[in-house]
Write a structure and sequence with these properties.
Elements lengths: L31 H18 L12 H13 L13 E3 L8 E12 L5 E10 L4 E3 L1 H12 L2 E2 L1 H16 L4 E9 H4 L10 E6 L2 H4 L1 H10 L3
Parallel strand pairs: 2-5
Antiparallel strand pairs: 1-4, 2-3, 3-6, 6-7
Helix pairs in contact: 1-2, 3-4
């Protein structure tokens, strides 16, 4: 990925249009404290409209705590400064077989109801002249997960980011997750889970390679 300044872009402009998170404006890069104030100010009347007594010592700090959770934790993937820099290293080991990072803990948030999506991501690629530090695969997953999401877009965002960063289409991503919008409301189904996948390059055309990836992640 060509990024000589080392700075993250203002939005997801480097992704294909259909994969971009629907930003209404350029994501704010103001200091955290400045971003917390308006978020907390919005949450305060929302809590009051539910009949909660915000003068109670247990609830008085809730609007700010929730705002802090959104800005610094749940939705930190909306801040372009958190986009991981994926550094590549020369493949001096001449390793050209399947490389799999499985069971990456995934915590995201449903953009329809703002409730958690919890699961695992499995990613794989075929190294060529370069390899990537393994922790960077996890960081890419977390960057796109930590924002309001739908699982289908999240899966493809991770795959596209890895394709661009690794310089190869030979990338596979599979996500299995539980959605609390399904489990705790509506149908209240606590037994189902959602699987999504994206296969690029040889993973899309080589059935044996895809099956080996699925075997290694226990599918």
């Amino acid at each position: 990925m060509d990024n000589p300044t080392g700075l993250a872009p203002a939005t997801d402009a480097h992704l294909p249009e259909g994969l971009r998170t629907p930003f209404a404006t350029t994501p704010s890069t103001k200091p955290t404290k400045q971003r917390l104030r308006p978020s907390a100010a919005i949450l305060r009347p929302s809590c009051a409209s539910l009949g909660l007594d915000l003068s109670d010592d247990s609830l008085a700090g809730t609007p700010r705590r929730v705002a802090k959770m959104y800005v610094q934790e749940w939705f930190k993937g909306l801040d372009p400064r958190n986009r991981p820099e994926v550094r590549m290293f020369h493949n001096r080991y001449n390793y050209h077989q399947l490389l799999v990072e499985r069971d990456i803990t995934l915590f995201s948030c449903c953009e329809h109801h703002f409730v958690p999506i919890i699961g695992k991501a499995h990613v794989a690629y075929l190294p060529s002249a370069s390899v990537v530090g393994l922790s960077k695969l996890n960081r890419v997953v977390q960057y796109y997960a930590r924002r309001p999401q739908v699982q289908e877009r999240l899966t493809r965002q991770i795959a596209e980011e890895l394709k661009q960063s690794l310089g190869t289409d030979d990338v596979a991503v599979l996500i299995e997750a539980d959605h609390l919008c399904v489990m705790s409301r509506g149908v209240n189904d606590t037994s189902s889970s959602t699987l999504t996948s994206e296969y690029g390059g040889q993973f899309a055309t080589d059935h044996a390679l895809r099956q080996e990836f699925l075997r290694q992640i226990g599918k």
